[in-house]
Amino acid sequence: MKKINYQKAEFLLSVAELHQLPHDEGFEVAIVGRSNAGKSSVLNQLTQNKSLARTSKTPGRTQLINLFSLDEARRMADLPGYGFAKVPQAVKEQWQTLLDNYLRTRDSLRGLLLVMDIRHPLKDFDRKFLIWSGQCDLPVHILLNKCDKLSFNEIKQTLRKVNEAVAPCPNMITVQIFSALKGIGVDELKEKLNEWFSD
Ligand SMILES: Nc1nc2c(ncn2[C@@H]2O[C@H](COP(=O)(O)OP(=O)(O)O)[C@@H](O)[C@H]2O)c(=O)[nH]1
Ligand SMILES: [Mg+2]
Asked: Quick count: other Cβ atoms within 10 Å of Cβ 183?
């Protein structure tokens, strides 16, 4: 299995449309999730680079696909957050179409990191996403982020609940707890990414 130095990650570019993406070669892993779940924070923690992906206290600000390169063949894509209530329906639909097209057509895409706030797991759009990714035969790794906000017992309960919900797809969906704030779960995440970024 390839071991990747995630600290070497560099910002590549931001795109608003799929045709602006880099050549569909090599390996790509996308980070998805509701706005404010902590996608940018996960990326910053993973790469040990606080300024890499902009974290924001204003949810829904990231409306572009932000690409980061790990090496010449490997990239991570921070996808626009979904489920932001204040966004007009037309814009939401535009996002859904973009994400849907990206998932269906991106050959280099090896897997999806689905970031959820552990206090609000498996919201409607998370579930929709799991169904989409299943239809596209894409493996999903769920990060139950912000575990620093819950007690040990609450974490255990939520982890059990989510594991039960995804049990019908044991090979395609995996789950772990994470804290981008405290750096909990980073090694487990790296192991999964290294697997996706190999062969
Ligand atoms: N307590 C806690 N807060 C977090 C964690 N990860 C992210 N946050 C906070 O959640 C908010 C949204 O994070 P951000 O990374 O911008 O989310 P994004 O919209 O999904 O990219 C910010 O205020 C972060 O500081 C975490 O693991 N623990
Ligand atoms: Mg973000």
From this structure: 13
Tell me the mean pLDDT in the region 169-178: 93
What pLDDT is stored for residue 74 in this prediction?
97
Structure-token match 């990650």, residue found: 9
Least reliable range by pLDDT among 53-57, 88-92, 132-136: 53-57
| Its pTM surpasses 0.90 | yes
Distance 52 CA to ligand 2 centre (A): 11
- Tell me the C-alpha distance between 158 and 155, whole Å: 5
Q: Is the pLDDT of residue 62 over 70?
A: no
Start-to-end CA distance of the chain, whole Å, equals 8
Q: Is 181 in the pocket of ligand 1 (CB under 6 A)?
A: yes
Dist. CA 188 → ligand 2 center (Å):
22
Residue 176 Cβ < 6 Å to ligand 1:
no
Q: How far is the CA of 55 from the centre of ligand 2 (A)?
A: 5
Closest of 56, 53, 47 to residue 67, by C-alpha: 53
Give the list of residues 6+ apart from residue 183 with CB closer than 8 angstroms, or none: 45
For 78-92, what is the mean pLDDT?
Answer: 75
Q: What domains are there in the chain, each with its CATH number?
A: 6-196 (3.40.50.300)
Listed in sequence order, the residues at least 6 apart from 182 whose beta carbon sits closer than 8 Å to its beta carbon are: 148
Of the listed ligands, the closest to the CA of 115 is 1
CB-ligand 1 contact for 63 (6 Å cutoff)? no
